[in-house]
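Students often ask why we bother encoding 3D structure as a string. The short answer is that it lets us treat folding as translation between two languages. Here is a chain of 78 residues written in the first language.
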Amino acid sequence: MVIQVKVKPGARVSALTQLDDGAWVAQLKSPPVDGKANAELIALVAKAFGCHRADVTIKGGASGRTKWVQIETDDARL
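And here it is in the second language, the structure alphabet:
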């Protein structure tokens, strides 16, 4: 499964939410420096979808604010 996530770094609290139109928004505490925000995004998505961090990869947009995140997991858990 691949989801598109709009990332907002520098937030007070980390959160992953899905909007009414189906889009995902990730608020991250980490700054976008040295891959810290990407690592936090992977951990946040893994926790939200109940999978391991190794099952989550950023497929596109690693240096931008809009990212394509791939989640390798059983559909039964979603």
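Translate back mentally: The chain has one helix and five strands. Keep this in mind for the problem set.
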